[in-house]
Design a protein that fits this description.
Blueprint lengths: L5 H20 L14 H20 L14 H21 L1 H16 L4 H22 L12
Helix pairs in contact: 1-2, 3-4, 4-5
């Protein structure tokens, strides 16, 4: 077998993920074409991802070989994965605004080293702005923390 390229590995991983989403989506009511249920959007997105993943895999013959990749940014990847894990665990406990504020503050100020002032301004405006957009304008209820924030 030919050596794997980065594109082919990405195609394989995203194909597997889209198949997992399709499998898990059967537990959610799909609805009808006239009145889609909550399971319709995950299924639609999973099929789009599956098609794109297969296209990336098929077109990935000439990409960079996986063995040639130098993992120089592994610290950023670990920090982002850790921050996403924190968000998944803290969202219900701390609420959307506080969890997003802490996560963005860490990513901007510590990981990207943009300074504390830039981190505070960006994290605060993003967490409050997106909460206003989803909670007030779009009426999507986001988790409230124990402090009501």
């Amino acid at each position: 077998m030919r050596e794997l390229t980065v594109d082919r590995v990405a195609g394989i991983l995203f194909t597997a993920f889209s198949l997992l989403v399709l499998w898990e989506s059967h537990k959610i009511p799909f609805g009808t074409m006239a009145e889609p249920g909550p399971g319709a959007l995950p299924v639609l997105l999973a099929f789009i991802l599956l098609a794109c993943s297969v296209a990336v895999f098929l077109g990935g013959r000439v990409g960079e070989r996986l063995a040639d990749v130098r993992w120089t940014e592994w610290r950023h990847a670990v920090a982002i994965l850790g921050t996403c894990s924190f968000m998944a665990l803290a969202l219900e406990r701390l609420g959307y605004r506080l969890t997003t504020l802490i996560a963005l503050l860490v990513l901007v100020s510590i990981v990207e080293r943009k300074g504390w002032l830039a981190g505070v301004v960006f994290a605060t405006s993003f967490s409050l702005g997106t909460h206003y957009l989803f909670n007030t304008v779009l009426r999507v209820h986001l988790p409230q923390g124990p402090f009501g924030i």
